[in-house]
Amino acid sequence: MTPLPPQCVPRATYRVQLHRDFTFADLTEIVPYLAALGISHVYCSPYLRARPGSRHGYDVVDHRMLNPEIGTPEDFARLVDTLSRHGMSHLCDVVPNHIAIMGDDNPWWMDVLENGPASAYASFFDIDWMPRDPDLAGKVLVPVLGESYGTVLERGEIVLAFEADDGAFAVRYFEHRFPLDPRTYAGMLLGALREVRPLTIPRPVMGEVERIAYTFKALPPRDEEMPARIHARRRETSELKRRLAQVAAVHPPLAEAIAGIVARINGTPGEAPSFETLHALLEAQAYRLAHWRVASDELNYRRFFDINELAALRMENEAVFDATHDFILDLAADGIVGGLRIDHPDGLLDPARYFARLQQRYRERSARRSAELPGAAPERHGAIYVVVEKITASHERLPQQWPVHGTTGYRFANVVNGLFVDKKARARVDRAWRAFVGAEAHTFEEAAYRGRRVVMEGSLASQLTTLALRALRIARADRRTRDFTLNALRAAIVEIVARFPVYRTYVDADGASEQDRRYIDWAVGRARARSRVSDPVIFEFLRSIMLGARPEGAEGITAESFREFAMCFQQFTAPVAAKGVEDTAFYTFNRLVSLNEVGGDPDRFGITVQAFHAASTDRAARWPHTMLATSTHDTKRSEDVRARMDVISEMPAAWRLLVRRWSRMNRSRKREADGDAAPSRNDEYLLYQTLAGSFPPGNPDDAAIDRYRERIQQYMVKAAREAKLQTSWLAINQPYEDAVTGFVADLLRTGIGNRFLDDLREHSATFAWFGMLNSLSMALLKLASPGVPDIYQGNEILDWSLVDPDNRRPVDYVARRALLASFAALRAEAPESLRVRSLFESPYDGRAKLWVVARSLALRRQHPGLFAVGKYQGVAVKGARENHVVAFRRVREEDGVLVVAGRLFASLGLPAGALPLGEPWGDTKVDASFLPSGTRVENVLTGETLVVDGDALDVGALFREFPGALLHFITPPSAER
Q1: Is 428 inside any structural domain?
Q2: Strands 176-179 and 98-100
Q3: Please, what are the averages of pLDDT over each run of 10 residues along the chain (977 residues)?
Q4: Which pLDDT belongs to residue 7?
Q5: Which of 339, 304, 233 is nearest to 460 (CA)?
């Protein structure tokens, strides 16, 4: 890949969620604030046309235009101009994997429903037109109905309509539109002609309508394979509709007759026989309407995860790529977009080819623009900044050959958070959880295995069956494997996928990499050892086709079939991991939920400082421009909630006693659901951790607690549904959910006499204080580490948000601007260090965190090369508190920075409310032997200037005014680095 010039790599990004309540105009208004904060690129959520009312933008319905709910092209132009005037740009979130369907606003999907396999867009979607069920041959299942088809039909909720302006017939089900096959128009039009009273319509007009009807009937069928006839069907349909609309508009009696026949077809609720005609009409279409639950078993189009309303796109099809990327790549080639974030690339059939095509198309457009407008975009280059939303396991490497600049930073989020978890407390924290929840506790391996199986046998069962059928077709082509049954293959696939160690492999036309082979061998080996599948030879067969390799002697089927299976298998393991682990096991394995984060491994209980250095060194060498995240729109809880929950690992004995006491206090507040006390012990344990991590600190008033209570009720219902034990999204257990929300309401009831709330106020102060200190260190480490630091909206100050939609609440930028402006007075003081402690006078207003962010980003702006390409090296710490400090340096030529951050603050022995400054650090020192004696070092966080005298710097002196240090230095060219 062509390297990016330094000025094209973002210095720091700021993620914003755009929707109708936060538009291009709203974003434009805060650009000056973001510029003052030190941001170089705004990182926007998807802003192409999405489903009306979308709060996130991932349900795109048209990739070729801006979302009108977010703003007009003029609004967008003003945003781009404002960013440019502040020396900034923006990243666009691209959604290549899927598109929103249902409703009535996706023209591609409407065309598929109308024309089936003959649609111009049939190849855009991953639809199996010849599924196992013969009733679905040539049709697509549309699981949209709220109840069974017959019930909905006979209630009159599926309604036929004539759309006079377009000359088209369609059926409606609430907001959903289903166009009819034009060939089926004939019967309705001829029926309408029979209803027309004599002499009300001229005979020539009657003849015209009759000709239109019979021409509709004579159109090539949906299963036509000849391209010329398919094209003729499209062309003639358009013309026939136009003529029908014209004649109906000019002759009201005809329109009335059509309305009459439509009304008759629609039937009469309560009279079942009256719906026979409508039923027969629907049966003749290119789709079958069905209850939404049917999707789990019979769906024949690939979805985004298990969401029926999001259909996967066949991005490997070049026409699909161009149709979905032309608009955004034109913006990029014009220099309007400064980088791309690619959503969920693991859902693509061939990610490597996708990324290569993306960069190729960008180069082509950039070259064309440069030729058309010479000198108009002097910073154009051979590649555009691209990061991918790829979840990598701790033992997995992002494919080095991908022409991208890294990921969106989930691995960093888990690595940096691990520094604030006390590894030595693993066994004690585990015992505390198991003692509380009893039989509900399992190992994480068991929880992940169960979670994957639950989704494969539930919401993703239809995809599983499709994959098993592919394997069966391959097996039947070889006499040595033809006795494998569908059930046996299905069971073996379940066992392998349930134990898969990564989201997916990347077998492609070039075969399997060494890493791919290792993961497939591992999963097959584990499955074979633990499975009860009758014929273990099946596992070796599946291993071969998962690798895309044709077994020796298997001549009955093409090598391409094996490769296709391998690539489709990969598209299956990714959603299973996402839904089975992140959205299931992460809500049942509740030992320490700050570790239950996207891309995380809850079984990895914290990391050492040495492991942090190793990860940072590797990142600096391999992916120096990858994104560094700590909170995102997808994280299960904000960085600051995790930072508070991490404190539990430092006080496991006290925590065990605390939750035991809380449980006794609240025993009488439990309800009964399905014969058991509710909430379950595991859900109750999750609730107590959630309260410790997010309860408003300080002295919140009743109104604040009321708002908080509603948030926790919503969160706990979502968590219980994700766990899929007592309730779920597919089968809501209302009595259990009512018991959970009632329990939360009782726990957080304001007024006199709530002993638990009083106790929570008292003890949550400990988690809030030490969590706040953790947050400061976490921010400092992120902002100085190799990579591009990203700030999720509002998280430049302390934010205790939980999983979406909680983390999409409005952000108070007025307050944040005021806090940032207040720093001008602070910095005017002389010496500056005398006033830094004032940041902690109101410790939870976020000023201290904002100070770390603003000062760190200011240094990055002043020394961009140092942070973009500077070398990374861990720095040794020695002394009684050495385990409580992490230090590293970044060096580029003479320019350098030394970062020193505290960790594990609660176990320093200081009470909550006491700042860990000076004396508590004792004899702990940071190695400074790489700095010549006499080197002047400026602490950017305090304004202090130190002079190096000896081989070490005293931590107590570095932390004299602030619990962290960002030390900038310039060394002579001859100095050792």
Answers
A1: no
A2: unpaired
A3: 68 98 98 98 97 95 97 98 97 96 95 96 94 91 96 96 96 97 95 81 88 94 90 94 94 92 94 95 96 91 92 96 97 95 96 96 91 59 91 93 96 98 97 95 95 95 93 88 92 96 94 95 94 82 89 70 92 96 97 96 96 97 97 97 98 98 96 94 98 96 96 98 95 96 97 92 97 98 98 98 96 97 77 75 96 98 95 97 98 95 97 96 96 93 91 96 96 59
A4: 63
A5: 304
Q: Where residue 71 sits, what CATH number does that domain have?
A: 3.20.20.80
* 111 within a domain of the structure (yes/no): yes
Cα separation, 64 vs 320, in Å, equals 12
- Tell me, rounded to whole angstroms, the distance of Cα 773 from its chain centroid: 28
Cα dist. 815→299, 458, 694, 796, 850 in Å? 49, 46, 20, 12, 12
Six-digit token string for 810: 């409005």
**157 domain residue, yes or no:** yes
What would the two tokens of residue 782 be?
């992120």
pLDDT for the residue 831: 55
H-helix or E-strand containing 776? helix 755-784
Residue 326 CA to residue 64 CA, distance in Å, equals 7
Predicted confidence at residue 832, as pLDDT, reads: 53
Asked if residues 325 and 357 have their Cβ atoms less than 8 Å apart, the reply is no
- How many separate domains does the chain show? 4
- Tell me 579's DSSP state: I
- Give a yes or no: residue 90 inside a domain: yes
> What's the confidence (pLDDT) of residue 3?
56
> Are the C-beta atoms of 213 and 190 separated by less than 8 Å?
yes
CATH classification of the domain holding 930: 2.60.40.1180
Both 131 and 272 in a single domain? yes
Residues 6+ apart with CB under 8 A from 418: 595, 604, 606, 607, 611, 612
Residues 287 and 378 in one domain: no
Classify each residue of 69-95 as buried b or exposed e, where b means 16 or more C-beta atoms within 10 Å of its C-beta.
bbbeeebbebbbebbeeeebbbbbbbb
- 283 and 152 in a single domain? The answer is yes
Asked if residue 831 has a cis previous peptide bond (ω within 30° of 0), the answer is: yes
pLDDT at 379: 47
In the three-class reduction of DSSP (H, G, I as helix; E, B as strand; rest coil), residue 927 is classed as strand
- Structural tokens at position 819: 């806090």
d(CA 423, CA 800): 24
**Which residues have CB under 8 Å from 250's CB, separation 6+?**
none
pLDDT at 93: 97
Which of residues 365, 393, 408 is at a domain's end? 408
| C-alpha span between 367 and 431 (Å, rounded) | 62
- Do residues 945 and 936 lie in contact, with contact meaning Cβ atoms separated by under 8 Å? yes
Q: What amino acid is encoded at 212 in this protein?
A: I
Across 287-307, b (16+ Cβ under 10 Å) vs e yields: bbbbbeebbbebbbbbbbbbe
**Structural domain that includes position 887:** 812-970
- Determine which helix (DSSP H) or strand (DSSP E) holds 291, and give its type and residue range: strand 287-291
Indicate if 401 and 510 belong to the same structural domain. Answer: no
